[in-house]
Amino acid sequence: MPIIQIACEKIGIARATYYRWVCDDQNFAEDVDEAIREGTAFINDMAESQLIGAIKDQNFAAISFWLRNRHRAYANKLQVDSTVKVKQPELPDSAVASIADMLTQIKEQRQLILTSKKSYVIKQPEPKISIDPRDRGAHEDKQTDAPTNGVGES
Question: What is the pLDDT of residues 105-123, one digit of tens each?
Fold first, then answer.
């Protein structure tokens, strides 16, 4: 019999009344949750105490239970061996042909874009160089319209 049912019978209320109170009264719901937590902890302590007593009495089932649940070396182990095979979905021939056509169109459009790009070259004016008269022999073929940095040319 569930614990809630037993508690309701002991105090003389229906289970429906208990659940209505839980829904309608937040404080009551919190108190119930706390009482259930405390009761569960008490029962766990009591059961563990009984288990330890059975272990002291050399009860093999109790010893085995304790070790399986409290000691990693004795825990139940699950070994899973498997092989995964991934099968590629088969595409109908029409889908493969359609994809191939689209790829061809994309390649053609890309090539068209690459070949139709115009190159714009911005020509900068050549720098005007002033020549020192002492270097005139080395730069004889170049002329300049720029001032000569204060040095006159003849």
Answer: 998 888 887 777 665 566 6
Q: What is the pLDDT of residue 112?
A: 80
Residues 139-150 have pLDDT tens digits of 455 555 555 555
Instruction: Measure the CA–CA gap between 56 and 127, rounded to whole angstroms.
Output: 104
Residue 85 placed within a domain: no
Percent composition of the chain: helix, strand, coil (DSSP 3-state, to 5): 60, 0, 40
Number of domains in the chain: 1
Question: Which residues, at least 6 apart from 142, have a Cβ–Cβ distance to it below 8 Å?
Answer: 129, 131
Q: Report the alpha-carbon distance of residue 50 to residue 63 in Å, rounded.
A: 12
The pair of structure tokens assigned to 81 is 């061996």
Q: CA 99, 105, 108, 109: dihedral to nearest 10 degrees?
A: -120
Domain assignment of residue 60, given as a range: 3-74
Question: From CA 147, how far away is CA 39, in angstroms rounded?
Answer: 104
**Does 105 reside within a domain?**
no
Under 8 Å between Cβ of 8 and 14: yes
- H-run or E-run covering 101: helix 93-116
Around Cβ 8, how many Cβ atoms within 10 Å? 17
